[in-house]
Amino acid sequence: MSKAAPPTIFCRVRRAAKWARLITRSRAPDAADYLLRDAVDDVVERMDFMQLTPKKALVIGDWTGLLPSVLKARGVEVHRYPIGVFDEEQPISGGPYDLVIHLLGLATVNDLPGALIHSKNALADGGLMIATFPGAGSLPKLRQAMLAADGDRPAARIHPMVDNQSAAGLLQRAGFKRQVVDSHTLSVRFSSLDRLVSDLRDHGMNNALMNSAPHICREGLARAKIAFQALADHDGKVKESFEMITLTGWK
């Protein structure tokens, strides 16, 4: 019996386009990159806690070069694929690696189990994979604003996100000998809905669904902005949340 193909949730063309826009936007001096920096800090903290000293590592998704620089300073041989350059659903060449790190990109692959299997296969025996990306608890305020925009005809404007429980099952399914899944919440305060949307585009978090929702009309956008601002604190800023999920698996 042939293996069933994974569902096509994300459009490859739209996904590639949003990564290309990310690279272009990242050249601006005020481009947001705090989610990536949070992910890098988390990876480094985990390595320090585990006293991990890999000889050869692969970093996928860091468009700033920050994590490769940290690893190289520690004497690690680093191979790097910036975000959007590598297809996570294909086998990984150049291994075996002692450490494979995915930053943000695995949130929007159609075949996430397959991508995790490819990462495991690229590891040396006893090697470690770390993958981090925004999870299901992210963007609750934006979700409310989008519901207000669409009224009684809600559309899929935020793509499905992985939660802790399903992430643990995915690691087990991929065949990692040991698995750990945990998360933390990063809170960011925004003065407007426009600013939040701009930051999401800077991180490549705009919509890449295969079946795109219709454009929000002018009246709908006005409703969304009003609903978002109604959630503001006393100083006029809205606190939005990003649930950063980290998958850790040993081969």
If you had to describe this structure to a student in words, what would you say it looks like?
With 251 residues, the protein is α/β, with parallel strands linked by helices. Helices cover 37% and strands 22% of the residues. It has helices at residues 12-25, 34-50, 66-73, 112-121, 140-150, 164-174, 193-202, 218-229, and strands at 56-60, 77-81, 97-103, 123-134, 178-190, 238-250. The chain has a six-stranded mixed β-sheet, sandwiched between helices. α4 (112-121) links the parallel β3 (97-103) and β4 (123-134). The longest helix has 17 residues, at 34-50. It is globular.
- Fraction in helix: 25-40%
* Spatial order of strands in the largest sheet: 2-1-3-4-6-5
What's the total count of β strands? Answer: 6
* Low-pLDDT ranges: none
Strand content: 15-25%
From the structure above, extract its key features.
251 residues, alpha/beta, six-stranded mixed beta sheet
Characterize this entry briefly.
The protein has helices at 12-25, 34-50, 66-73, 112-121, 140-150, 164-174, 193-202, 218-229, and strands spanning 56-60, 77-81, 97-103, 123-134, 178-190, 238-250. With 251 residues, it is an alpha/beta fold.
